[in-house]
Amino acid sequence: MLDEKDRIAVVQQFGRTYRTFMTAFQACVGLPLLQWRILLMLRDLSSAQPQKTLVETLDVDAGALTRQLQQMEQKGWLTRSIDERDNRLTNVALAEKGRQKINEATPLRDAFLADATDTLSEDRLCLMEETMTLFEARIKEVAARCRIAS
Length: 150
Known about the structure:
Blueprint: H1 4-29, H2 33-45, E1 49-50, H3 51-58, H4 62-74, E2 78-82, E3 90-94, H5 96-117, H6 122-149
Antiparallel strand pairs: 1-3, 2-3
């Protein structure tokens, strides 16, 4: 049975693995994972989306998303505009340069993921995905209780 020290070690390893993945993804694919996710979402939705929708769908902090969108807009990958019906909303749309970036980065992403997972069996990958999903759900449950208590 795991004691407190062992549980802390597991969570610390999870953090190290996540940071290593993020750094390697950016080095191999050429853009941060969040920017990749934003580009894909905009491509898949095929129309301008309220920035609030991106925050909710991508499950990211609004301020962090705004910073990423500003950088991406400067690169010409997307456009942001005030909603014509509700000037409180900012709409985000994929620009042609953003579509080109996705097309350039997709083979790099695919190669990175294949290389990163090629020594792991399908069973291990499935177990890892299942475990991380359960862990995420549990963390959200605990966080919800913490917000209630404070």
